[in-house]
Amino acid sequence: MGDVLWTPPADVRERSRIGNYLRWLREHRGLDFADYDALWRWSVTDLEAFWSSIWEHFEVVAHTPPTATLVDRSMPGARWFPGATLNYAENVLRLPGRGDDDPVVIAYGQTRPPVTLTAAELREQVRRVAAGLRRLGVTAGDRVAAYAPNIPETYVLLLATSSLGAIFSSCAPEFGTRSVTDRWQQIEPKVLVAVDGYRYGEKAVDRRAEVAAIRAALPSLRHTVGIGYLDPAGAPVGAISWAELAAPTDEPLSFTPVAFDHPLYVLYSSGTTGLPKPIVHGHGGILLEHLKMLALHHDLGPADRFFWFTTTGWMMWNFLVSGPAVGAAIVLFDGNPAHPDLGALWRLAEESGTTYFGTSAPYLLACRKAGLVPAEIADLGALRGLGSTGAPLPVEGFTWVYETVGDQLQLQSLSGGTDVCTGFVGGVPLLPVHAGEITCRALGAKVEARSADGTPVIGELGELVITEPMPSMPVGFWNDPDGVRYREAYFDVYPGVWRHGDWITINERGGCVITGRSDATLNRGGVRLGTAEFYSVVEGMDEVVDSVVVHLEDDEGGAGELLLFVVLAEGLELDDALRRKICRELRTALSPRHVPDEIHQVRAVPRTLSAKKLEVPVKKILTGTPVDRAAAKGALANPESLTAFAQLAQRRAPHDHPTPAS
Fold first, then answer.
1. What's the distance, CA 227 to chain centroid?
2. Cis peptide, bond prior to residue 65, ω within 30 of zero
3. Are 602 and 613 in contact (CB under 8 A)?
4. What is the pLDDT of residues 43-96, one digit of tens each?
5. Which terminus of the chain has fewer Cβ atoms in its 10 Å neighbourhood, N or C?
6. Backbone phi, then psi, for 82, in 5-degree steps?
7. Are 140 and 258 in contact (CB under 8 A)?
8. Which candidate, 378, 341, 381, 383, places its Cα nearest to that of 363?
9. For position 106, what pLDDT does the model report?
10. 656 burial level (CB within 10 Å; 0-12, 13-18, 19+)
11. pLDDT, tens digit (0-9, with 9 covering 90-100), for 489-545
12. Could you write out the DSSP letters of every residue in 477-519?
């Protein structure tokens, strides 16, 4: 690890937004920082000075100014910018550096032709839809739910809803009825906006039956608005059409001033076990975090076209659509990223003039495995940044990007979560890119690795914790008045310290490597093994398409059992020769401890709707938990994949033998 693949240009401070911020700190605050490390240390030590500088540097529009920056540093319970009133939508719709005729939303998909909204058109759409919601009786604090894909209407709805101080929540239309009702029965929306269906590649997917079932399961609904997306000529799925909601009106665009921590939207944990956690994010915390991240870390501004491959069911959508707040135009895509082939998104990058291309590590690895050379199938000359998240990106993913996409762009691998709606480790223009490494801890994010006894460690695997509050930590969970569920989720293990649930190694230079979820750890004879390096080796083999690995502990304190499940390339069957080959690869690349006790072939690896592998539910099923208690099937992209694990658990269960008669 550690090969340098990209180095910042000598004049990076003159050319980047973080360089501009450093100059501003020197001129306005008398602060001078020699390097990124010094800047980071200040940002996580003097929290008040750092976060108030973000507020001032980006000229946040407030209706009343704050009386302080941070009242209480304790977690949970930190109170940011008390007294301030502002509105997220107002700050986004300033569209700094964008003229009225500049495109700010460029949308592509497989259901209809491309749509572009200029700055003036976006503001006009938001004005009309906000007036439409007001006509439906929506006021501050009401919930508006969108069962809709990554299209301009969903974005307009988010901004219109937040302009009123109402609370937004979205589910992607590929979510099944149960997944959606598990989320929305908790928050009781007043208005539902839904599409009739969508196209995924060649396939038309009708969602009218799901919309009817969702409506029936939500007694709180007063109105349903239908978007004729799949069939514009068909009857809308709601009593009201989108055109009626967005009808012309004289009502001016106005913004309800709300408190800094007033709820903006509710995001949900993947809900693989139990009900999804309804995570409430606030107007001010999200605004400040996204201004910081998008401008200073991703270096986005008015010259940029910012794309991230995501659905409306993943927090990366919420992150993407804050792009206009820093002046960037956003590129939306709805459809199958592998249609007609894996090159589709790279060609989209060329067509849209994308300057920053965000995607998931599994997508990059799939392109690598397919032998794709993006630079040969698309002109990616405009591209200067590439973001990867959703899973750790291994060394070979990094080298593939620099060999086949472009050697001048900055690759930023980042990790964070729905819980903070951002990445707390990622990239920055000031630092080089090292193969297999997340470049740095983000400004204002006091990330540490903790050993088993709770002490911070450098250069060793530890539990990822955050030891100082961040403004975009949740306002709380919905319907959790005493904060019990919120505390249990993050602060139970280390009181006063946020435990995120990932394994991380932070090296001497501040680079980070995340090796998987800490609740899915493989603990072999006292040595903790992350799952990410495991997958990197196994899925690097031509024969293996996908895999999942679990460790079953031994009650007696022995080594336990390491079980590996593989999905093989078409037409292949797992035989002893392939088993030996997999074991040999793991032993050579990693260590003898990584050699599994058993390898089984399965048809599919269970994944959430945002494509995360479900190691913990698999482990629960294999240790005897019934399938319906181990995982909420509605949260899975492929619930049928669990059957194979349940059958194996049955076969492995110790059978009761009658005791012989004495």
1. 26
2. no
3. no
4. 999 999 999 999 999 999 999 999 999 999 999 999 999 999 999 999 999 999
5. C
6. -60, 145
7. yes
8. 341
9. 98
10. exposed
11. 999 889 899 999 888 999 999 999 988 777 666 666 555 666 777 887 898 898 999
12. ETT-TT-HHHHHHHTSSSTTSEEEEEEEEE-TTS-EEEEEEGG
Residue ranges of alpha helices (H) inside 169-282 are 177-187, 208-217, 242-245
Which neighbouring-strand residues pair with 626?
none
* 201 vs 335: CA distance, rounded Å: 6
Residue with tokens 């293996």: 544
List the Cα angle 47/52/54 in 5-degree steps: 100
Residue with tokens 């903070």: 420
Q: What is the DSSP string of 528-543?
A: EE-HHHHHHHHTTSTT
Strand bridging mode 476-477 / 278-282: antiparallel
**Matching residue, tokens 């400004």:** 443
**pTM of the entire predicted model:** 0.88
Q: How far is CA 166 from the centre of its chain?
A: 23
SS3 654: coil
- What is residue 347's three-state secondary structure? helix
For 78, half-sphere exposure in the C-beta direction (CA atoms, 13 angstrom radius) is 21
Rounded to whole angstroms, how far apart are CA atoms 357 and 306? 7
When pLDDT is cut at 50, 70 and 90, the band that residue 624 belongs to is confident
Q: Which residues pair with 421 in a beta bridge?
A: none
| Tokens representing residue 230 in the block | 């799949």
CB 598, CB 564: distance < 8 Å: yes
Q: Within a 13 Å sphere around the CA of 125, how many CA atoms are in the beta-carbon half?
A: 20
